[in-house]
Design a protein that fits this description.
The protein has 109 residues and is mostly helical. The chain is built from four helices and no strands.
Length: 109
């Protein structure tokens, strides 16, 4: 859904995510883990953060406008839930729009 003062933002949110590799081993101390991810940043550029926020708000407004026509979410059985929870963590960062689309697809469709 487009705002009156802004064009539609669908598919225009290529936000970089930090690249995190490897598997977290619980035998590492906090200091060792911090050293391994010292170069990773979760800080977004303010403009990128704004665009991600607009994308989420647009999605929420769209969901609320069509609430009666769409299910509230997916009803998963235990096996489906466990399968989703056991998916491996990504090895590399992905654009925000891809992560958000995956969330919406897995949770709401």
């Amino acid at each position: 859904m487009a705002h009156a003062s802004q064009p539609s933002r669908a598919g225009k949110y290529p936000l970089p995510l930090p690249r995190v590799t490897g598997v977290v081993d619980t035998d590492f101390s906090l200091e060792q883990l911090e050293a391994r991810i010292d170069d990773a940043s979760l800080d977004f550029d303010p403009e990128l953060m704004r665009r991600a926020g607009y994308q989420v708000v647009d999605w929420i407004v769209e969901r609320l406008q069509n609430l009666r026509a769409n299910p509230l979410g997916r009803e998963l059985d235990r096996a489906e839930t466990e399968s989703l929870l056991r998916e491996p963590m990504p090895e590399e960062g992905r654009p925000f729009d891809a992560v958000f689309a995956e969330y919406a697809q897995k949770v709401f469709t």
